[in-house]
Structures are given as C-alpha cells and as structure tokens.
From TrEMBL:
This is FMN reductase. It comes from Alkalicoccus daliensis. Residues 1-143 form the NADPH-dependent FMN reductase-like domain. Signal peptide: none annotated. Pfam families: FMN_red.
C-alpha cells in the first residue's frame, strides 16, 4: 500500500506540520505501508494547460505520477480567503477526471478561524467526489490556536490525526479487498 501526504500550499508551515504528523502516525502504526510526503512548496509546478498528466516533465510530472500511483492520499490544505489555495486546485486540474477512482482520500484542514470549518465540505469534498475519490468522511480541522512554534500543541488534534491515519489505512484495505473479490468473480 502506498500513501501520499500532499501539503497543498506554497506558503506557511502549519499545513506541512499537520501532514507531517499524519505521515509520522502512519509510519509508526503501519511500518509496512509505503509513505511519501509531497510539499508543494518544494516543487516548481506548471499550471495545467489541458495536456495529459503523463506529458508533463520535471516536478509537475513527478508529482502527478506519484499521486496517480498512490493507493491513498492524505491532502492537507490551508484555507485562504475562504477557499482552498490555487496551488492545490492546480493539482486537481493537472489530473484526469477519474484520477482518484479506487483511491482513498482523507483531509487535514488548517485555518486561522473556526468560520472556515465548512470550506472542506463545500469546496474540497465536491471536487474529490467528482474525481471519484473514496472519501474518509471525517477530516481534521486545525485552527491557529492549536499550533505553537511550528508544532501542534493540542493533544486532541494529535489524537484525531492518529485516527485519520488509521481510518485511511482501514478504508484502503477494505476497498482493496472488495475490488479483489469482485475481480476474482471474472474468469479472465
């Protein structure tokens, strides 16, 4: 099983900190799971121009191929101006419509205000559903006050990140088993 952590912003540190915590939880609890963290701040991404994702080279080609090869993705996103950042939306635009078919996607949202709590439900979940993702229904919402010096200080948040990691693995294993049983019904 391959799980990608995607920190979906080019600025700030809180989303990266939260996705790092999820990746650490996955490594600690599931050492056999292959994990990789992709922080968009570390890559030179091209804007989507309608090409097939396989035609992109460099960082853009690497990131899109890694996402397409993953069994599950933990998406971390900050909320800027009551919306997801353009860097994350560009990732979705670079990928095909069915990019997340047979993939489990879970979410971690960082925001400066509790007023942004529903952005994931109103903006991110519809995009992921359109792209055929199997969503972990609960997500982790983290506010500014939960961080101190680039660390998560709220133990409840850390517990919820652990649970999100567990739910991501369990749901991925479950859907994989269901698909394998369904495919075994065919004789070819």
């Amino acid at each position: 099983m391959k799980i990608i952590g995607l920190s979906g912003s080019q600025v700030g540190s809180k989303t990266r900190t939260a996705v790092d915590a999820a990746m650490k939880s996955l490594k600690d609890k599931y050492p056999d799971v292959e994990t990789n963290l992709i922080d968009l701040a570390e890559y030179e991404m091209q804007f989507s121009d309608g090409r097939n994702y396989l035609e992109y080279e460099g960082d853009t080609g690497y990131v899109t191929k890694e996402l397409m090869e993953a069994d599950a993705i933990v998406i971390g996103t900050p909320i800027f101006q009551a919306s997801i950042p353009a860097t994350l939306k560009n990732i979705f635009d670079l990928l095909p419509v069915n990019a997340f078919r047979d993939k489990v996607v879970s979410m971690i949202v960082t925001a400066g205000s509790p007023k942004h709590y529903l952005i994931a439900d109103l903006q991110l979940k519809p995009i992921l559903a359109y792209m055929k993702a199997q969503l972990v229904q609960t997500y982790v919402f983290i506010e500014e006050e939960d961080f101190y010096r680039k660390e998560i200080k709220n133990n409840d948040i850390l517990d919820r990140i652990d649970r999100l990691a567990e739910d991501t693995v369990v749901l991925t294993e479950t859907f994989t088993k269901i698909r394998e049983e369904k495919e075994a019904q065919y004789d070819f």
